[in-house]
Amino acid sequence: VNFMGPTTYERHHYLFTGCEPSIGGMVIDFDGHVLGMANFPGTAYIPSSIVLKCLDMWKKFQCIPRLHIGMKLSPIKFLDPIHVERIFRKCNIDSGLIVKEVSHGSIAEELGVRPGDVVDSVNGECVATTVELENLIMRICENHLDQGGAIGSCMDILGWYLAHAERSQRSKAHFKSEIKCIR
What we know:
Elements: E1 2-4, E2 14-16, E3 26-29, E4 34-38, E5 45-47, H1 48-61, E6 64-67, E7 71-75, H2 81-91, E8 97-102, H3 107-110, E9 117-122, E10 125-126, H4 130-146, E11 154-164, E12 169-182
Antiparallel strand pairs: 1-2, 2-3, 3-4, 4-5, 6-12, 7-8, 8-9, 9-10, 9-11, 11-12
Domain PDZ: 98-137
Organism: Aegilops tauschii subsp. strangulata (Goatgrass)
Pfam family, one: PDZ_6
């Protein structure tokens, strides 16, 4: 059992359980609630909502369907306050996900997404954390397969609202991505 104190961005304390190096064990808060599964020794964990959704999809489809969006994202709330203020003044956005990297050859690159752009909603739902985005994308994949779509088929994700911080403008992006299967 490892104890993890609060990080710079959080004020919560966690207990990590499991074998060395604590990957795959439970993450428990001091009220005894299971928060998720340890993913990286001492710091990162997969939230229980995502673990449970993956198990459910594994039972239904014998795999975990995934979309490749081609972006590495980070919550705005984890940026330094000066950067958050600058984004708010230019784009009138104070929550969302800032694009850190764009994968070469991805649909995001083709659409002109650049590091520094902000994703604040997808399919009409606001996203402020990577966990919210992950849950939303998993739900979109599951609904697509439940409605008869197949692994390997392409699907549209409408309503990606991007704020271009350096260009002081907002736009709506239309992503089309192939559902891949993680086994």
